[in-house]
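TOPIC: backbone geometry
CONTENTS: sequence, structure tokens:
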Amino acid sequence: MTTRDDLALANRLADAAGAAIRPFFRARYDTQIKADKSPVTEADRAAEAAIRAILEKERPGDGIIGEEYGSVREDAERVWILDPIDGTRSFIAGRPIFGTLIALTQGGWPTIGIIDQPVARERWAGMSGQPTTFNGKPVRTRACRALEGAGIATTSPHLFADGDVPHYLALVAAVSGGSPRQGPVYGGDCYNYGLLAAGFLDIVIESGLQSYDFAALVPVVEGAGGMMCDWHGEPLTADSEGHVLALGDPARLEDVLEAMAAVADHSHHH
């Protein structure tokens, strides 16, 4: 059973990760640091090590799956899933829109999710059965009456596999209504899902995500009234292919799926 204690611990884990990451952000290094000791790797490792040290001490029976240091006890009922820096390229470029992702899953389902931006000191926290909070105050997604003009974001169109691109572009066309001013916001990684949860974006679309990329996002988005699913509208599971849709307003799901499917129809006309 997830408790407030688990949420308090998750917040402490995020605090520890942030303290480990901040000294590396936009830092200058002299040339003596070897290529394999790049600052991002040090920041990633320092953050994950800080989180793991606390978990091993306070929750020795829980499993841990981390991007940097692998898995321990991953068959446990309760497993913490960690991505110390989601948005590595933003981090390297000095853009404070990366985030630390911390999820607690029970029986395979995410029950707690944290998205933490340690430079801006912004934190979204989601927990099953509770409203999502942003820096401690409840937030909600916004209503989205129509697909045209919706706020849509993705990290980069270059991350889509070739077969995914037409579906993505079909959705962009439906949202933009022919105007690039209504087109996508690029960059952002996990940060976009926080913005969607807080009512500043309507749609986030990505492919190629790993379970540690989306486990923490689900409680945040759903606790704010949004929904997350794959590109067929099916719920995300550990077996999902990494095609992810987040919608601030679940009422737009059919419209989004219809727009993305419109690609197949065009092929018949040529």
Summary: The mean pLDDT is 91. The CA atoms of residues 153 and 185 lie 5 Å apart.
